[in-house]
Recover the amino acids of this structure.
């Protein structure tokens, strides 16, 4: 039996329809478009992947009791051959598949933490569909999963140094005396600030009945030239690109909602190095910090972004106490459920220039579609290095927010990103 983290437990509870903005699995669905794939090699690579990463066999009972299932031979890879259909029929089938996979809940009771499928198209073109449940595979681990899968595909017999088991790592940080002291310190730090945490943003929530939660994706892309301009601007302002764009996002949202102050949900994926090679582990390392955004007294956008950057430094220093627990404490303080439904996730300050390695792109092609769902999340704004530029991706709950309104917010942010170098330099 394995002990769940606070985040894993929250995601498990959020699968029920009883939670605010619940009824969904915390999962990430991606599509890769490539040419020429050996299905038998891919099947064997998946078998190897499940052998090397036991958490892919994680099962959860109806009561949320976690166990790692024994290895067993199984057909992991699904294949849909659409190559004989007309172009119109292929488009219809792919859209139906996208809709179904976007809103599915993987069967964790049977150890289904991920789902893989290849849609075979014409002229040796294929689409690779990957859906991962974040209880077992957080977004940072999704990158490890794709990296290892492409490695096992290209070199089936390669010697592989198995990384630590995720639950061994979690047990280690739970019992480490120094980390326990830091957790207690940060619990008290947050307790003193509960009365000052701003409310959630005043989003234009709608109340429309859906049998299931409905999600959609809005996205845009900044060119390599624009990415370089933002990086240069961040250096000039002595902040990271992440904090630069986070400041811009907060500024845009504040103006759109007219809120004087509000809170944002900022996920982190820090892996405390208590075990060697934990950077290669697959698991749920997610935490979150609650960022207070104060729109009052803004003098310049540059000063605002620097203020956000300074706040983030302080928050990360006090992130040893789980953000999920902070929200629980906040709910007890107010006597009502408190959520942080607007999320900002960034993968910009990475060692690699792109989110996915050259090997992943060589084997599976370009990741041309990605969307996520999460309980108690109405809007998840993500930025990442993709194809040498910056992908700006907004995942929205259509049963909670009007799509047209969210599109306005995205367009505003896109405009700001385009003109930001000129704004801040002046």
């Amino acid at each position: 039996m394995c002990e769940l983290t606070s985040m894993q437990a929250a995601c498990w509870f959020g699968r029920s329809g009883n939670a605010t903005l619940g009824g969904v699995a915390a999962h990430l669905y991606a599509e890769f478009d490539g040419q020429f794939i050996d299905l038998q090699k891919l099947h064997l690579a998946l078998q190897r992947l499940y052998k090397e990463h036991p958490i892919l066999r994680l099962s959860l009972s109806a009561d949320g009791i976690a166990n790692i299932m024994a290895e067993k031979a199984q057909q992991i890879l699904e294949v849909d051959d659409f190559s004989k259909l007309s172009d119109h029929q292929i488009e219809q089938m792919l859209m139906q598949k996208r809709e179904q996979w976007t809103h599915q809940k993987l069967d964790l009771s049977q150890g289904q933490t991920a789902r893989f499928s290849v849609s075979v198209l014409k002229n040796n073109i294929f689409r690779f569909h990957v859906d991962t449940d974040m209880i077992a595979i957080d977004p940072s681990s999704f990158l490890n999963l794709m990296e290892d899968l492409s490695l096992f595909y290209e070199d089936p017999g390669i010697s592989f140094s198995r990384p630590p088991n995720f639950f061994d790592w979690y047990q280690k940080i739970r019992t480490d005396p120094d980390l326990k002291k830091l957790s207690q310190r940060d619990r008290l730090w947050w307790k003193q600030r509960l009365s000052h945490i701003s409310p959630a943003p005043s989003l234009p929530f709608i109340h429309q009945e859906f049998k299931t939660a409905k999600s959609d994706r809005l996205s845009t892309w900044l060119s390599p030239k624009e990415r370089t301009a933002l990086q240069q601007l961040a250096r000039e302002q002595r902040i990271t690109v992440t904090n630069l764009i986070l400041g811009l996002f907060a500024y845009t949202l504040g103006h759109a909602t007219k809120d004087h102050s509000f809170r944002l949900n900022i996920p982190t994926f820090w892996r405390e190095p208590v075990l060697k090679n934990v950077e290669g582990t697959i698991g749920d390392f997610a935490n979150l910090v609650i960022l207070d955004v104060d729109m009052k007294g803004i003098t310049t956008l540059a000063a605002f972004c620097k203020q956000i950057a300074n706040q983030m430094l302080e928050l990360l220093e006090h992130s040893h106490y789980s953000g999920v627990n902070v929200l629980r404490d906040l709910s007890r303080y107010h006597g009502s459920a408190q959520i942080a439904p607007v999320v900002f996730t960034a993968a910009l300050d990475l060692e690699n220039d792109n989110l996915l390695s050259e090997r992943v792109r060589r084997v599976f092609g370009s990741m041309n579609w990605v969307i996520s769902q999460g309980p108690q999340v109405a809007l998840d704004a993500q930025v990442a290095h993709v194809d040498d530029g910056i992908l700006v991706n907004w995942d929205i709950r259509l049963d909670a927010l009007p799509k047209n309104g969210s599109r306005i917010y995205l367009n505003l942010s896109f405009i700001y990103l385009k003109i930001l170098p000129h704004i801040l330099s002046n």
Q: What stands out?
A: The mean pLDDT is 92. DSSP finds twelve helices and 13 strands in the chain. The CA atoms of residues 338 and 395 lie 21 Å apart.
